[in-house]
């Protein structure tokens, strides 16, 4: 059974930090690119950061550059999103997604809420 389980969300003040985690199971993790998306109320889901499966190359949305860092631990089947200097506009549900780099399979997690507010 494929599972992506996010954790680490919560409420934080502007300027604070959070580290999101996504635990993967049920598929060959090392063959999948991993991406964090987010969806704010009333807005479309948007890509935040992605990390590929082989070299570990990364890409970030402009809004995340310089503040967020995506990483993965293939041995633990985990992907992380370190978020620093959080802003109120970062408030959203954050989702983890796995995309096969050799096919069309993809999987979503259930999301974790991040709220940035004073």
Short description:
This protein is 0% helix and 53% strand. The protein has 118 residues and is mainly β.
Low-confidence stretches: none
Q: Give the count of helical stretches.
A: 0
- Kindly state the mean pLDDT as a whole number? 96
Strand content: over 45%
Largest sheet: 7 strands, mixed
The number of E-state strands comes to 11
Structure report:
The chain has 118 residues and is mostly beta strands. It has strands spanning 3-7, 10-12, 18-25, 32-39, 46-51, 58-60, 68-73, 78-83, 92-100, 106-108, 112-116. Strands 2, 4, 5, 6, 9, 10 and 11 form a seven-stranded mixed β-sheet that branches. The N and C termini lie far apart (40 Å). The model has no long low-confidence stretch (mean pLDDT 96).
Strands, helices and their partners?
Blueprint lengths: L2 E5 L2 E3 L5 E8 L6 E8 L6 E6 L6 E3 L7 E6 L4 E6 L8 E9 L5 E3 L3 E5 L2
Parallel strand pairs: 2-11
Antiparallel strand pairs: 1-3, 3-8, 4-5, 4-9, 5-6, 7-8, 9-10, 9-11
Question: Which structural traits does this protein have?
Answer:
118 residues; mainly beta; 7-stranded mixed sheet; 4-stranded antiparallel sheet
